[in-house]
Amino acid sequence: MQNKVLLIIAQKGFQSKEYFDTKDVLQNEGIHVVTTAPLHEMAYSHMGDEVMPDLALSDVRVTDYDGVFAIGGPGALEYLDTTETARIFMEAHQTENYPYGAICIAPRILAKAGVLKNVHATGWDGDGELQRVFDTYGVIRVEESVVMDGVVVTAHGPAAARDFGKKIIEVLRKK
């Protein structure tokens, strides 16, 4: 059976390398990648790349996928730090042995949603705020480019995107 993974991107300002490298690694392993954004209309990366999401966040049913992962970028906090994204990750978190995670700034969104409490995680810290955010929501910060804690995978940023994809594959195979 082919795995199906959901990648969540911002409507504007998602990180190109994180999205395309992660997607490429997953697809090269035969994993079907579905992309969602807040709206089912053209999404734009921070570099101007265009991606037509397969569906809107409001149409996501977590049980339709084998894992859900959020992509970072400068637009992530503005477009993905929402009740809809929190709903998706809460459903993932509440489903036993269900893989989920995020890369770059997006782990902060998961922390705020309460799905990284007591989880070892990493993320982008270019603004020096990651430790404060993680402390606020009970996340255990690890200084590594990619961290897998059980079924949760988090990554630092664009340079870690391919390894993020590889860890997603690893966690899917353990399932």
From TrEMBL:
<dbReference type="InterPro" id="IPR029062">
    <property type="entry name" value="Class_I_gatase-like"/>
</dbReference>
<dbReference type="GO" id="GO:0005737">
    <property type="term" value="C:cytoplasm"/>
</dbReference>
<feature type="domain" description="DJ-1/PfpI">
    <location>
        <begin position="4"/>
        <end position="170"/>
    </location>
</feature>
<dbReference type="InterPro" id="IPR002818">
    <property type="entry name" value="DJ-1/PfpI"/>
</dbReference>
<dbReference type="InterPro" id="IPR050325">
    <property type="entry name" value="Prot/Nucl_acid_deglycase"/>
</dbReference>
<protein>
    <recommendedName>
        <fullName>DJ-1/PfpI domain-containing protein</fullName>
    </recommendedName>
</protein>
<dbReference type="Pfam" id="PF01965">
    <property type="entry name" value="DJ-1_PfpI"/>
</dbReference>
